[in-house]
Backbone:
């Protein structure tokens, strides 16, 4: 397992198993160091025994150090991601605030067009979710229905709107909104 794949398991109480594991490794290191010191004082322990215990202590200490440094890097990454998320949320809120009147108008225009196409309530819901980019599987899960039902309702939308599919449905509403900003 590489340190990139080493992620703390989510917990509800804030305790992270990796920190506990590091503490156990540090405890093992301390016990091995104490055992080494007492074995050496006894002077009747073989050199091989002392080397093995020393290597075990160094291995436990190295593993604890690695776990703690990985945990520190992970916390820094989480903090960075939280900052990025806050910036993204602020930008989205700013955009929504600036565009709220336009979005209201667009929502009304879409609803009016659905009336012209004489879509059923289920077809309207499916059409809106398709416009939002959800897959038929996601729509089926969200609406707690079968995917085949969603596909059938989507086909009804396309047929009533005289469109070929999802791309044409999105283009119908977005084409004029995304016109290039050409200045004379």
Residues:
């Amino acid at each position: 397992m590489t340190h990139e794949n080493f992620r703390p398991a989510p917990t509800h109480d804030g305790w992270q198993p990796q920190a506990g594991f590091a503490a156990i490794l540090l405890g093992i290191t301390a016990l091995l160091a104490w055992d080494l010191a007492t074995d050496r004082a006894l002077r009747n322990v073989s050199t091989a025994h002392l080397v093995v215990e020393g290597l075990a202590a160094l291995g436990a200490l190295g593993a604890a150090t690695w776990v703690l440094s990985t945990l520190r890097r992970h916390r820094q990454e989480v903090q960075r991601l939280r900052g990025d998320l806050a910036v993204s949320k602020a930008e989205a809120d700013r955009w929504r605030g600036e565009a709220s009147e336009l979005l209201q108008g667009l929502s009304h225009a879409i609803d009016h067009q659905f009336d012209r196409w004489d879509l059923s309530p289920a077809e309207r819901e499916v059409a809106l979710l398709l416009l939002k980019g959800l897959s038929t599987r996601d729509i089926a899960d969200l609406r707690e229905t079968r995917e085949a039902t969603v596909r059938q309702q989507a086909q009804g939308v396309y047929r009533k709107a005289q469109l070929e599919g999802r791309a044409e449905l999105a283009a119908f509403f977005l084409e004029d909104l995304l016109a290039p900003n050409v200045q004379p």
Notes: Helices lie at 17-42, 47-117, 121-131, 136-143, 147-161, 166-174. The two ends are 60 Å apart (CA to CA).
